[in-house]
Design a protein that fits this description.
Layout: H1 2-42, E1 52-53, E2 59-66, H2 73-82, E3 88-91, H3 93-98, H4 100-108, E4 112-115, H5 128-146, E5 152-153, H6 162-170, E6 174-175, E7 180-181, H7 191-201, E8 207-211, H8 217-230, E9 234-236, H9 238-241, E10 247-249, E11 254-257
Parallel strand pairs: 1-11, 2-3, 2-8, 2-9, 3-4, 5-6, 7-8
Antiparallel strand pairs: 10-11
Helix pairs in contact: 2-8, 5-6, 7-8
Length: 258
């Protein structure tokens, strides 16, 4: 009877040990799967471009993507001058080739120039080598035409993933998006609609997206710039808005001081 009891206890102990090991292993696997799920949901492991800057100053930036046309570019630059505002223009090679004199004038008037690719492709559909070629050729042409050494990059269509941001970093470029999309390219929106959209969304550290040849863009900035200044905002090129040292980009795309 005693012998049977000891054997029974021994079997029970062994069973408990095996069960504990299995539970621990299951817990490990579950925890790591859970971490992956949390990471996917929260974007904790994904890289983000800069959409906005965390700042206590009433400081914002306005930017213009130049991909097509030039009919309204002079008016835009004149209005910027009238309001003593310097902006950031993101240029594509196909635009630089068609309007080199306009590109030079953008630089001569003191505006910042950023890269917007060579052929305006979806970057997430490119290999790393193709991305590097797009950016290198874009940077070289900007330098050749305007003399400007570009440090900022805006992906065409706002299309990015981790590889896009990593590749830009390898080329010493900071990837920039926007926090306020003016939608000035949409023909079904009036100048009043676009102006209202911008003014309702702007806050400290905002980056506004516009285009150099939007139908209503000159009319819009003629209204929006003085109104933003009246509200106490300082409007600067994107590089002057950015935090220079010890920064990171959070999961919402906001650049913050470490």
């Amino acid at each position: 009877m005693v012998v049977f009891s000891l054997k029974g206890k021994l079997k029970l102990i062994i069973f408990v040990i095996i069960l504990a090991v299995l539970v621990a292993l299951a817990g490990y696997v579950f925890t790591n799967d859970a971490r992956e799920i949390v990471s996917m949901v929260t974007g904790r492991d994904s890289l983000k471009p800069i959409y906005q800057v965390d700042t206590e100053e009433k400081k914002i930036a306005i930017s213009f993507d130049a991909c097509w046309g030039s009919e309204r570019t002079d008016d835009i630059m004149d209005i910027l001058d009238d309001n003593k505002v310097k902006a950031t223009f993101f240029l594509v090679n196909i635009w630089l080739e068609d309007y080199p004199d306009k590109a030079k004038e953008v630089a001569e008037r003191g505006h910042e120039i950023g890269l917007h690719s060579t052929t305006h492709p979806h970057f997430t559909q490119l290999s790393v080598e193709e991305m590097k070629e797009e950016l290198t050729k874009n940077k070289e042409m900007v330098k050749k035409v305007t003399g400007y050494d570009a440090k900022l990059f805006r992906p065409p269509f706002g299309d990015y993933n981790n590889e896009v941001i990593k590749t830009a970093r390898e080329l010493d470029l900071t990837t920039i998006q926007w926090s306020v999309d003016s939608l000035d390219w949409r023909e079904n929106l009036s100048a009043q609609d676009i102006s209202k959209r911008i003014l309702e969304r702007v806050e400290k550290g905002s980056i506004i997206l516009m285009h150099n040849d939007g139908q209503h863009t000159p009319e819009v900035i003629k209204v929006v710039l003085p109104e933003l200044k009246r509200q106490g905002y300082s409007i600067v090129p994107i590089s002057e808005l950015l935090i220079k040292d010890d920064w990171y980009v959070d999961s919402e795309g906001i650049q913050r001081k470490k």
